Amino acid sequence: MSIQPPEASNFAVPIDRMFDAMLVLCGAVALGVFVVMFWFCIKYRHGSDANREGRQSTRFGLEISWTLIPFLLFVGMFAWSINLWTLLRTPPNDAKPIYIVAKQWMWKVQHPNGRREIDMLHVPLGVPVRLIMTSQDVIHSFYIPDFRVKQDVVPGRYTALWFTATKLGSYPLLCSEYCGTDHAAMTGTVKVVSREDYHAWLNESTALPLAKQGRQLFVQFGCSGCHDPGSGIHAPDLRGLYQSRVALADGSTVMADDRYLHDAITLPATQRVAGYAPIMPTYQARIDEEDILALMAYIKSLGQESAHALHR
Ligand code: CUA
Question: Given pLDDT bands bounded at 50, 70 and 90, which one contains residue 304?
């Protein structure tokens, strides 16, 4: 029996190796310190006839080596961990996006084709997956021990996490940030299935794709009344907005990323677009995070064609 949990993602093995190396290195240092300490305790105990003359000597080679060798070992650990951290923080461009909304006390999952699940996350084997996560209420933390990945999920912002599952099977999903009464019950299952099974599973759903759901919400919440081209109301055109630079009324410019789109919907007064009157109402209390994700999927799907003309 192994004392380690299964290693089921691309990060599991490198993280375990680094953990082992840290354990060995720190263990060796601790052992060295304690061995010498006990040895001195015995040798120089009260009443022993050890030589206490306080001989002065400088052995330069020894001083240099016991300073430099541990220093280089620990700097090496640092370089190794930075390298791994960079990998953990850099999803490949082709990673499959899946959206997560945490809520007291459940994990809600939205796949871009519109399929939803709760406390379950289906992922395809061997395909990089990027989770885009936010919280409806308090801070949660998304944790898959067998994948060695963990990321805080914070209200009012998007955090991301990526991995490639490397073993078929079911793995526990946990919340690792105390988030209220049922924190301990905020668990789920990550199901790693083959690519074929994953696509078959996605296609069982009759739900509209996320971007189409977003379009319906766009009409339902009345956004289209102002933001559709030709609406007759002077509101920013959203075509090509995503990932373009937006000039704000205060003279600054911002990148229209996920965070910007989210805040533009919930807190429109904070980042007003230059040249437009502050007439957009806030949707903060009227719309939940899942709907915002669908709206964002719709906005992202609007073509790039007019981006440069409209959002300079
Ligand atoms: Cu959610 Cu703890």
Answer: very low
Is the distance from the beta carbon of residue 238 to the nearest atom of ligand 1 less than 6 Å? Answer: no
Query: Residue 310: what pLDDT?
Result: 42
183 lines ligand 1 (CB under 6 A): yes
In this prediction, residue 1 has a pLDDT band, given cuts at 50, 70 and 90, of low
Cα of 308 from ligand 1 centre, angstroms: 42
Sort strands 128-135 and 96-103 into parallel, antiparallel or unpaired: parallel
The mean per-residue pLDDT over the stretch 277-284 comes to 78
Residue nearest to atom 1 of ligand 1 (CA): 140
Q: Round to the nearest angstrom and report the end-to-end CA distance of the chain.
A: 61
Residue 109, exposed/middle/buried by CB under 10 A (0-12, 13-18, 19+)?
A: buried
Ligand 1 close to Cβ of residue 177 (< 6 A): yes
DSSP letters for 153-201? E-BTS-EEEEEEB-S-EEEEEEE-S--STTGGG--EEEEEE-HHHHHHH
Residue 52 Cα to ligand 1 midpoint, Å, equals 59
Closest ligand 1 atom to the C-alpha of 186? Answer: 1
Q: Is the pLDDT higher at 195 or at 307?
A: 195
Q: Which atom of ligand 1 is nearest to the CA of 104?
A: 1
Neighbour count for residue 260 (Cβ, 10 Å): 16
Flag whether pLDDT at 168 surpasses 50.
yes
For residue 191, which amino acid is it? K
Asked if 254 and 246 touch (Cβ cutoff 8 Å), the reply is: yes
Phi, psi angles (nearest 5°) of residue 160: -125, 160
Q: Is 264 near ligand 1, meaning CB less than 6 Å away?
A: no
Look-up of token digits 């909304």: 101
